[in-house]
Amino acid sequence: MGGTFDPIHMGHLITAEMVRCAVPLDEVLFIPSARPPHKDGTRAASPEDRLAMTKRAVQENPHFSVSDIELKRDGLSYTVDTIAELQSRSHGATLFFITGADAMNDLYLWHEPKRLLRSCQFIVATRQGVPLDELLLAEKFTAEERSHIQVLPTPHLEIASSTIRARIREGLSIRYLVPRTVEEYIEKRGLYREHDKEL
Ligand code: ATP
Ligand code: MG
């Protein structure tokens, strides 16, 4: 499961656990991505902080782990390269990429989307308010490429990292939106409190 995880929240964790049981999967690897500063006026956390929060969030689940594969890579980081790298390391394991519908609808804009689709199976967790754009997918991808996309209904949790960042900036509670360990880390490090001055 790739994402900026800025911060990781219960929507990510519950989705990952539901997908793990439904497919079923042996393991879910959370892969924080490199990313430019946010454009929504909230302050972004550093890659180190995002990685640390993701590690804290998954530590209790023996089926969850975190990879810094994208953060360690120099230059632009593409999912297609990440999948290829994981494939070469995973000794014949079948790889799945878990995304929300919003990310899937944008997939055609990613680097080498057709090669990416063909390189693994995509599990799309439905996300409230964001239906999968079947017409757009049919326009951008062949039926063979689309056969790599599997939609999986998951509990609808209207939680987004952007809402969490906005709540912190406004001094509102984020309890139960993120694991306690993540809440404590955010508090201790004073993350997301101020507006990003350059924006
Ligand atoms: P932001 O608000 O900053 O865009 P986000 O909450 O969407 O953050 P991301 O790190 O961008 O989180 O998401 C990583 C992946 O998790 C994406 O594929 C996204 O669709 C999915 N996702 C995020 N929130 C949820 C949720 N509440 N339920 C299901 N999937 C989610
Ligand atoms: Mg998002």
From TrEMBL:
One of its GO terms (molecular function) is nicotinate-nucleotide adenylyltransferase activity. Its EC number is 2.7.7.18. Pathway: Cofactor biosynthesis; NAD(+) biosynthesis; deamido-NAD(+) from nicotinate D-ribonucleotide: step 1/1. InterPro entries: Cyt_trans-like (IPR004821), NadD/NMNAT (IPR005248), Rossmann-like_a/b/a_fold (IPR014729). Residues 1-165 form the Cytidyltransferase-like domain. The keyword NAD applies. Coiled coil: none annotated. Keywords: ATP-binding, NAD, Nucleotide-binding, Nucleotidyltransferase, Pyridine nucleotide biosynthesis, Transferase. It comes from the Bacteria. Pfam families: CTP_transf_like. It catalyses: nicotinate beta-D-ribonucleotide + ATP + H(+) = deamido-NAD(+) + diphosphate. GO terms for biological process: NAD+ biosynthetic process. Belongs to the NadD family. NCBIfam families: cyt_tran_rel, nicotinate (nicotinamide) nucleotide adenylyltransferase, PRK00071.1-3. Catalyzes the reversible adenylation of nicotinate mononucleotide (NaMN) to nicotinic acid adenine dinucleotide (NaAD). This is Probable nicotinate-nucleotide adenylyltransferase. It comes from Centipeda periodontii DSM 2778.
